[in-house]
Structures are given as C-alpha cells and as structure tokens.
Design goal:
Layout (H helix, E strand, L loop, with lengths): L1 H17 L7 H5 L8 E7 L2 E2 L7 E4 L4 E5 L4 E8 L4 E3 L4 E2 L6 H16 L2 E5 L2 E5 L5 E7 L7 E9 L5 E3 L7 E4 L4 E5 L4 E9 L2 E4 L3 E2 L10 H13 L3 E5 L2 E5 L5 E7 L4
Antiparallel strand pairs: 1-2, 1-3, 1-10, 3-4, 4-5, 5-6, 5-7, 8-9, 9-10, 11-12, 11-13, 11-20, 13-14, 14-15, 15-16, 15-17, 18-19, 19-20
Length: about 260
C-alpha cells in the first residue's frame, strides 16, 4: 500500500515539474508597468533639439501615473504600457501659467507628442517614443534623481517665520552636494560646509561650519546668511524635478529651493 502511494506521489511531482510555467495575465503585467519608477528629461522632439532650460520632464509612477513639467507648466495624467507599447491619456491635467510664446509652443508640441505615442524603446539609457506609423516623436535622457555630485543656486529660503523669501539683490548662495557626504558652497559672504545624509527621499543636514568674514553690503547680508544656514538644518526631505531641487522640513514647509547651476 505504501509503495503504491509513493509511486502516485512521485508521478504527480514529475507531471508538475514538466508542466509549462503559466504566463502572467494582462492584469498582472499591467500591475508592474515596464517604465514604473523612471524619470526622464526631454532631449528632442522628433529630430529637433529642445531648450535645456527650463527642462521638460517625464516621470513614471508605480501606479500607471505620469507627471512632470512641459517647460511651462506642471502636468499629470495616466498611461498604460506593455512590452513596447504605450498609451498616454488624452486629458492631462496641469497648472495654467503663462509663458513666453516660444516655450508655450514647445510645451504644446510636447503634450501632443505624448498623446500620439504608441510605442516606446529603451536603448543605451535613452527613451524614445514613436507613433503608430513608427515616426519618432520624442527622445529622453535619464533625469538626475539624487543631489549627490550636483551644484545648485538658491532661489528661495525659509526665513524662520514660515515664509519663503528670495535673496537680496546682488547676492548669491550656492550648494554643492559632494560624493563624500558633505555639502558646501557660498552662503553669500562666507564659505560654508556641513555633513549630510540621504535615505531614499529623506535628507538630514548637520550644523554648518563657515569662514568668518563680515560683509556690510548688500544691507542685511549677514542676517540672510544666518537664516539660510539655519534653514538647511531643518531639512527632512528633498525633491528633484528637472533643474529644481526642493528641501522641505518634517512638516512639509519649504526649507530651501534651488535651481541647477548653469553649465552643469
């Protein structure tokens, strides 16, 4: 009896081992889009290069969502994709800022290209979108997703009163995030440095050391420098979007807003 039972079990195991592995269903494939979690910067529309500033960005979320900046406005929407197919929803929501005519025209052409996309290809870290006829619509390169190894200029900083303010006229503040875990730059008058750590979207910046110059002009320079260095230490998270880097506090308030330094 035991011998017969063992034989039946052995035969069953052999049948299971030889059976083909089930292919994932359409719903299973679509639950893990091939472009999920990737971030891109537009390099060309068709065969024509686009302006690098401001950058046009395309971000793929993990839930079939897309978003980015069309060079004039922020936008978001939905998409579906397969092995090499892609469809982007016709109704892209976005902000409604007015921009120079040239940027608005480029933004319009870009959105139209997205909505005509039918195929995509990844080749040597480049993403290309094509229409149903195979015509090239847009080419992208990977976006910077970490501040490490980049240099930025301050646009806004938190003045300690829950307000984001611009820099004094004639002043400049910079920040370079080194690969050695140190951020450094000009605080407007003095050079400064501080340790920083990253953990996913979380960032911590330690107390800053600085040189000890005194700058009388422009009026208020030393106070601005102090407030900027204090704002850095309140950083809890960071967000990158094209040529913009935002540092935010634990409660979501803006600590510092940067623009990518020209020439990088």
């Amino acid at each position: 009896m035991h011998t017969r039972t063992a034989a039946v079990l052995l035969a069953t195991l052999l049948m299971l081992a030889c059976a083909p592995t089930p292919r994932p269903t359409t719903s299973e494939r679509s639950s893990n889009p091939p472009l999920a979690g990737t971030h891109w910067v537009l390099q060309a529309l068709g065969s024509s290069a686009v302006a690098k500033t401001p950058p046009v960005t395309l971000n793929f979320g993990s839930d079939n969502r897309i978003g980015g900046n069309d060079g004039c406005n922020q936008y978001q929407g939905n998409h579906t994709s397969g092995d090499d197919s892609i469809r982007i929803g016709e109704n892209l929501a976005g902000t409604l800022m007015a921009c120079p005519d040239q940027l608005e025209a480029q933004a319009r052409d870009y959105r139209q290209a997205l909505q005509r996309a039918a195929r995509f290809a990844l080749d040597r870290d480049r993403l290309s979108l094509r229409d149903d006829a195979g015509n090239l619509l847009a080419t992208f390169v990977p976006a910077v997703t970490s501040p490490v190894g980049t240099t930025w200029e301050v646009v806004l900083y938190n003045n300690g009163k829950q307000g984001a303010v611009s820099l004094l006229l004639g002043s400049r503040i910079s920040a370079s995030f080194g690969t050695n875990g140190r951020v450094s730059g000009s605080a407007g008058c003095n050079q400064y440095f501080a340790a920083y750590t990253l953990d996913g979207p979380s960032m911590r910046i330690g107390a800053a050391g600085a040189t000890r110059r005194f700058c009388a002009e422009p009026d208020g320079m030393m106070n601005q420098e102090r407030l900027y260095l204090e704002a850095l230490q309140t950083t809890a998270t960071f967000r990158l979007n094209g040529d913009r880097l935002e540092l935010r506090t634990a409660n979501g308030a803006l600590a510092v807003s940067f623009r990518r330094e020209t020439g990088e």
